[in-house]
Each structure stands twice: as C-alpha cells, then as structure tokens.
C-alpha cells in the first residue's frame, strides 16, 4: 500500500459496537480540519496507536519505507478503510473488527471520547482501467467496511455480485445501494482463526457474461487463491482486478 505523507491528529468522538464483532469509531477534532478524502470508494488510512495508555499522540513523518517520530518512540500502525468521511464536519468513520490479540482492537476497546491518535492521508485503488460489464465484490470482515462503501457509492444500473464472509449471522449488515446487487453472506464461526471459505465459494459461483471487474479485500491466503482463479481460470484481463490481502492468518495481523 502507498503511504500518503501528510499526517493528522484525530480525536475520538464516539466508539460503539455495531455488530457483535465490529466496532465503529468516529474521529473528529481540529486536527482533521485539513484532512481530505482521495475520492476513491475503498480509500484507506494508517492509524498510529500509542504504545501505552495515556501516552500523548505525536505526528509521524514519512521517512523512506517507514515512519519516524519526533520523540523517537515508535508507534504501532495499521491500515484501515475509511468507512465514511464527512467534510462538512471533518468527521472520519473507521470500522474495526473486534478480536483478541490485535493492536487496533486493544486500543479501541478502551478508547473514550477525547482520546487522540495520529492518522495518515488517504489513498485508494478501486476501479477498473477499462469498461466492464459487471462487478464481483468479495470481502471478509476486514474488507467489509470498504465493500459496503463501494456498494453505497455505486450508480444505479450496475450489475454486481457481492460475497461477504462474517463470523456470525448478527455480523451481517444492511447493504444500501442503487445498483442491482446479488449479495451472498457466508457465516464462518471460526473467521480469523481458520482458513477462509471465500475462495471455494467464489470458484463455485455462476458468472455473468462479459468482462467483470473483480475487487476483493480479505485474508492473504484467500486473496491469493482468488487472484489465481480469476487470472488463470477466468482469464480476467489486466486492469480489471484488484485483489488485496488485508491481513495474514499466519501472523494474525488484523
């Protein structure tokens, strides 16, 4: 992922569970007054978390392939999708999968209004390089915030097949879209601790005629299998697929 160089302070406004395994944090404050959306539906930012409770937030500086910090105290950073950005209010919404062992989850479980972190500028990649006939949108819970925003911003008349893997039925969310979308929900109680079911499900799908645009954000092993399938078996042209491993089950990097 690219690393937009500008960084901003972001203050927690609200923090709530929206499903049993998904937490929504809304950031605001004067530090986000200059934040701008990149305008791409799957845009992401990097969140920089404190190393200890009560540690003051500092703005990192992009340096080579990493980041440096003015106080020389490294902070853990993770890439997260922008679920929503309201430029009028300078409010940034991020959905975080709630699971044991994650840096972001550990911070989010105790974050309260007024807590401050640093965030990077936004970047994204969604969109085919050439005209396509329909779209296949695939995500596990980590990719779901981007996928739902993509569908929300999709124009009427677009034909879409969406395949989403969640940990429980209660983790399913309302899909709001003007497009013609066929949504498939896969419930995987061991989501995050056992191999994903997404690849075999995608391989069993009946595809629409014509050229698709395939977008996927999920665990690295699942995305590797789907990427191979759409390229080798389905012969999806270059520029018509963005299949990205968001995290690795081997390293539990959610």
From TrEMBL:
Domain FAD-binding FR-type, residue spans: 5-132
Pfam families, per the entry: FAD_binding_9, SIP
Molecular function terms, GO-annotated: oxidoreductase activity
CDD domains: siderophore_interacting (cd06193)
InterPro entries hit by this protein: FAD-bd_FR_type, FNR_nucleotide-bd, Riboflavin_synthase-like_b-brl, SIP_FAD-bd, SIP_fam, SIP_rossman_dom
PANTHER family: FERRIC REDUCTASE, NADPH-DEPENDENT, NADPH-DEPENDENT FERRIC-CHELATE REDUCTASE
Protein's UniProt name: NADPH-dependent ferric siderophore reductase
The species this protein was found in: Antricoccus suffuscus
């Amino acid at each position: 992922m690219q690393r937009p160089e500008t960084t901003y302070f972001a203050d927690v406004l609200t923090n709530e569970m929206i499903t049993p395994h998904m937490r929504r944090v809304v950031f605001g404050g004067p530090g986000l007054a200059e934040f701008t959306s990149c305008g791409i539906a799957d845009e992401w930012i990097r969140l920089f978390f404190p190393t200890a409770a009560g540690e003051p937030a500092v703005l990192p500086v992009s340096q080579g392939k990493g980041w440096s910090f003015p106080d020389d105290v490294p902070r853990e950073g993770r890439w997260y999708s922008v679920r929503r950005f309201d430029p009028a209010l300078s409010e940034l919404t991020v959905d975080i999968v709630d699971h044991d062992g994650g840096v972001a989850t550990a911070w989010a479980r105790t974050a309260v209004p007024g807590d401050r972190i640093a965030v990077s500028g936004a970047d994204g990649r969604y969109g085919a390089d050439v005209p396509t006939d329909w779209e296949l949108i695939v995500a596990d819970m980590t990719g779901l915030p981007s996928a739902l925003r993509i569908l929300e911003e999709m124009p009427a008349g677009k034909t879409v097949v969406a395949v989403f893997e969640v940990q429980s039925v209660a983790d399913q969310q309302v899909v709001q879209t003007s497009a013609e979308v066929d949504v498939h929900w896969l419930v995987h109680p061991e989501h995050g601790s056992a191999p994903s079911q997404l690849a075999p499900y995608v391989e069993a799908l009946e595809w629409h005629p014509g050229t698709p645009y395939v977008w996927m954000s999920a665990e690295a092993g699942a995305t590797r299998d789907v990427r191979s399938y759409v390229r080798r078996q389905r012969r999806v042209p270059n520029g018509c697929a963005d299949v990205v491993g968001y995290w690795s089950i081997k390293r539990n990097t959610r």
